[in-house]
Amino acid sequence: MAIGGLRSGRPSGQGLPCLRLSLALSLSLSLSLSLWFGRRPARASSSNLSAVQPSETPKTRATEMSGKPKLHYTNGRGRMESIRWLLAAAGVEFDEEFLETKGQLDKLKQGSLLFQQVPMVEMDGVKMVQTRAILQYIAGKYNLYGKDLQERLWIDMYVGGIMDLMELIIVYPFLKPEEKGDRVALIAQRATTRYFPVFEKVLKDHGQDFLVGNRLSLADVQLLEAILLVEEKVPNALTEFPLLQGFKARISNIPTIKKFLAPGSKKKPIPDNNYVETVLSIFSK
């Protein structure tokens, strides 16, 4: 039997250096191959994870966080509700610290609020403010923000339109009684002639289950929230939009969203007079 070109047996003094060189080269080659091929599966695994739907791995993602996000806002919908929706859709558990007095808000303003405004979310070591920035961060972190720049553009455009519609509804509880009838009419008109037709056409044109990239995104979560808000004021709002009816049923049954829509979740109810009075007392000048 030969090793490295030498016959077995006790090597001669002349063959010993060759044997050592051969063994060194073999070990070096083996180590190089091990290091090279050992890296490649790791890169492939990372790539594969990026394609997983958010609803498929909520527990995994939740455990990757450095503690639960903490939401600072009133105990009601307002501008925080969309953030609650998105975290819930991503399968992320969160804590809430409710503002109940003006003093609590004043204390937050002393170093915790960049622009002296809520909502504020403590997450990943950052005190985040500005609703859209918070939503975009969460969407990006949990694979709900498209796969490339162009998909993110479409998501942002859709979300911008949806938020314009939702703005009409968010302020509704704070209107004077004589103003509310006209506001409901405006909500119905804008929803059924400006916004819902756009999304009905999007679903018709691409024939897919989701608005962008055929996967769940921030835009889908926001649209479902907006549909349900509109239906609270205009129950028949989707009558002329069969594809949006299917979209509503489909997105509502995603496990994490279905859980959020169930009784006992952190989803907030329709604002009542007590909530309105609390908000006015906290944010009064």
Can you tell me about this structure?
The chain has 285 residues and is an alpha+beta fold. The protein has one domain: Up-down Bundle (Glutathione S-transferase Yfyf (Class Pi), Chain A, domain 2). Helices cover 58% and strands 7% of the residues. The chain has eleven helices and six strands. The protein has a four-stranded mixed sheet, with helices on one face. Strands 1-2 form a two-stranded antiparallel ribbon. A hairpin with a 2-residue loop joins strand 5 and strand 6. Helix 3 (81-89) runs parallel beside helix 5. The chain is globular. It starts with a strand and ends with a helix. The model is unreliable at 1-53 and 55-65 (pLDDT under 50).
The CATH level-2 architecture is identified as Up-down Bundle
Helix content: 55-70%
Distance between the termini: 94 Å
Which class of secondary structure composition applies to the elements?
alpha+beta
**What count of domains describes the coordinates?**
1
Tally the helices. Answer: 11
| Main beta sheet | 4 strands, mixed
**In one word, what is the shape?**
globular
CATH class: Mainly Alpha
Poorly predicted spans:
1-53, 55-65
Q: Per DSSP, what share of the residues sits in E-state strands of 2 or more residues?
A: 5-15%
Number of strands: 6
CATH topology: Glutathione S-transferase Yfyf (Class Pi), Chain A, domain 2
Report Rg: 28 Å
Average pLDDT level: 85
Helix and strand sequence? EEHHEHEHEEHHHHHHH
Which strand order does the major sheet show? 4-3-5-6
